[in-house]
Amino acid sequence: MILTPDIYVIGLGPGGACAAYEAAKNSFLTIGVERKKIPGTPVQCAEFIPALMGNMVNNLRATCVQNITSMHTQVESSPADIIADFPGRMIDRAAFDTALAQEAQNAGVQCHYGQSVRHINHDGAISLANGTKIKPKVIIGADGPHSLAGKAIGSINNEILETRQISIPLLKPFKSTDIFLKADIRGGYAWLFPKGKTANLGVGIVASDKARLKPILDTIHKSLVDEGRVGAKTLSHTGGAIPAGGMVMPHGMLGETLVLLIGDAAGLTNPVTGAGINAAVISGRLAGEAAADWLQGDDDAPKHYHEDLTDLFGASLRRALDRRRALLQNYDNNNTPTPDDLRASWIAYSEYWAA
Ligand SMILES: Cc1cc2nc3c(=O)[nH]c(=O)nc-3n(C[C@H](O)[C@H](O)[C@H](O)COP(=O)(O)OP(=O)(O)OC[C@H]3O[C@@H](n4cnc5c(N)ncnc54)[C@H](O)[C@@H]3O)c2cc1C
Predict the structure, then answer these.
(1) CATH no. for residue 136?
(2) Ligand 1 centroid to 314 CA: how many Å?
(3) Which atom of ligand 1 is nearest to 202's Cα?
(4) How remote is the CA of residue 277 from the centroid of ligand 1, in Å?
(5) 242 CB less than 6 Å from ligand 1?
């Protein structure tokens, strides 16, 4: 049997759930597929979102674990520099993804969990690992940094950050995002984000240094234990890839099937901070609308989708990419980045925002 939905959304993370919701709201037969058995589980995220997202996502309050008010950035072993006004929320990411997926389902999306797309053909035909075949009119690729939908249209995230994160007991509650910049963490940084009585401690690094993630994280964990800020016990660990090369071409055709990419699949994650939830939600909504417009005869809808993404995210992605590449150039020239180089590559410092 071949399924023939109007719109087939691959991946039901925040981006896919929002895209599917918009598509179904426009009365198109929409199916979403997700390889995880339970939405958002296991969590692969540090769970910070900007406070402004509260205006965009229903039920956000229900998934919020604690407020963030400031950002503390420690460069090498200097005392932390403090941005006092940095409002955000720490969320329960599994609950957040579940709430968005539930909204999509309520709007009429058929959500299939525990099923993986294995192959996408050049004519837009999709095969699942369980043998199911699908021939949709539109594919929305919401399948993350290593997107199969992106690969099918030649839009591939070539620069990747790898991460490792542990959840640990928090002994002294705080309300900042703590950032650690070190020349030793090539192309990335470490973070300590509070979540009530626990905290997410993680590190991201260029993919070629992946083997160094655990020793770096262990060292930072130990120093925080020594400072009496966190407990020694590791409650859980996670990780995952983050696209760090900026936006890829977010649309293409496979035969008569339109493909739209969103969120991490489209490379919309900030190459410096690794933050991508906000962009996934926004691009998901726009792609759901663009898919509906295209199905209603607007041939320019994919082009307009691309223009919208460029207008919304182009400048900030470009700046982040420039700063990241300038920092990485030091290593390519066999130089160790100085503390000033590290500052110029991070959003807390005026050098980052300079022309
Ligand atoms: C360790 C870590 C920490 C992070 N911390 C933050 C943070 O604090 N704040 C922030 O804003 N961003 C953070 N990010 C980035 C953020 O998680 C992503 O940008 C965001 O999840 C992108 O949403 P998305 O919907 O595009 O993709 P995802 O959330 O990655 O969803 C893609 C979905 O597609 C599914 N999928 C993939 N392939 C297939 C397939 N073949 N078949 C079926 N399903 C498939 C996956 O299972 C997944 O559920 C972090 C990322 C990592 C790895």
Answers:
(1) 3.50.50.60
(2) 20
(3) 1
(4) 8
(5) yes
- How many domains would you assign to the chain? 1
- What is the residue with the minimal CA distance to atom 2 of ligand 1? 45
What are the tokens at 51? 């406070």
- How far is it, in rounded angstroms, from Cα 342 to Cα 276? 22
User: Has residue 110 been placed in a domain?
Assistant: yes
Residue 234 pLDDT grade (very low, low, confident, very high; cuts 50, 70, 90):
very high
- Answer whether 186 contacts ligand 1 (Cβ < 6 A): no
SS3 at position 210: helix
Helices (H) and strands (E) counted in the chain, each on its own, are 10, 20
Confidence of residue 61 (pLDDT cuts 50, 70, 90): confident
139 in contact with ligand 1, CB cutoff 6 A:
no
Could you read off the pLDDT of 275-284 as tens digits, one per residue? 999 999 999 9
Q: Give CA torsion, residues 239, 168, 180, 165, to 10 deg.
A: 0
User: What is the Cα Rg of the chain in Å?
Assistant: 20
Going by their DSSP bridges, the two strands 7-10 and 30-34 should be labelled as parallel
User: Ligand 1 mean position to 44 CA, how many Å?
Assistant: 7
**How many whole angstroms separate alpha carbon 317 and alpha carbon 167?**
29
* Confidence tier at 302 by pLDDT (50, 70, 90): very high
Per the domain annotation, does 294 fall within a domain? yes
Evaluate whether residue 19 is within a structural domain. yes
d(CA 110, CA 163): 32
* Residue pLDDT, tens place only, 139-155: 999 999 999 999 999 99
What does the pLDDT look like over 177-192, one tens digit per residue?
Answer: 999 999 999 999 999 9
Q: Which residue has the tokens 């260029």?
A: 206
- Cα distance between residue 249 and residue 258, in whole Å: 13
Whose Cα sits closest to atom 29 in ligand 1? 13
Cβ of 289 below 6 Å from ligand 1: no
Asked if residue 353 belongs to a domain, the reply is no
pTM: 0.97
Question: In the chain, which residue ranges form alpha helices assigned H by DSSP?
Answer: 14-25, 60-63, 93-106, 148-152, 213-226, 277-295, 301-309, 315-332, 339-344, 350-353
Domain range for 135 is 2-42+92-158+245-317
